[in-house]
Design goal:
alpha/beta, Glutaconate Coenzyme A-transferase, 8-stranded parallel sheet, 10 strands
Length: 195
């Protein structure tokens, strides 16, 4: 079902939910921020994520009684929360994550994703980040998406039909990027040596 706002799209998330957040540049920040807006209505929410981009407001100290955050990979946005004990780190290999989801070791019942607009047949693409997301979608009872025209279509096992998405909001946002590093003299010398 299409919603006008991200807050409406996440309104079906109930206390006690186990939420998977789409990974890296596909992090649906508008949905995670809307989830945080609902913090006063929620309790016992467990979040599972690989590396995500953008703010991880749900890991802020003021929300630690609502959101239990489990990171399978730690990015800049969770480093401090993990170091201070507000988020957990689950060390594993990336290849193990889909198996852990499918076997219920990581129990998912909600998936927050970001996808491309649907094609003529109604298929959206998971775009720049498929990794463990397919396993999460297969387990999720509630799939909520940001449909973003900036999300590129990718091939492979990266498609989801718009009719299998329970709630979505259309919002165009830039995908996060990391600027290239500026090379100093040391890096240039290493490059010359390697070349």
């Amino acid at each position: 079902m299409k919603y006008a706002t991200a807050l409406e799209a996440v309104s079906g998330i109930k206390p006690g939910s186990n939420i998977f957040i789409h990974t890296a540049a596909a992090t649906p920040t508008i949905l995670t921020e809307a989830l945080v807006e609902r913090a006063s209505e929620l309790s016992d929410i467990t979040i599972y994520q690989l590396h995500t981009e953008g703010p991880a407001t749900y890991a802020d100290e003021q929300y630690q009684d609502v959101f239990k955050v489990n990171a399978l990979f730690i990015g800049k946005n969770l480093r401090e929360a993990v170091a201070q004990g507000r988020a957990n780190f689950i060390p594993c290999f990336l290849s193990e994550v889909p198996v852990m989801i499918r076997n219920g070791i990581i129990p998912i019942n909600v998936a927050l994703i970001q996808v491309s607009p649907p094609d003529k047949k109604g298929y959206c693409s998971l775009g720049v980040s498929v990794d463990a997301t397919r396993a999460a979608l297969d387990k999720a009872e509630l799939i909520i998406a940001q449909v973003n025209p900036r999300m590129p279509r990718t091939g492979g096992d990266a498609f989801i039909h718009i009719n299998t998405i329970d709630a979505y909001v259309e919002q165009e946002t830039e995908l996060p990027e990391h600027p290239p590093a500026i090379l100093g003299e040391v890096e240039k010398k290493i490059g010359e040596h390697v070349a």
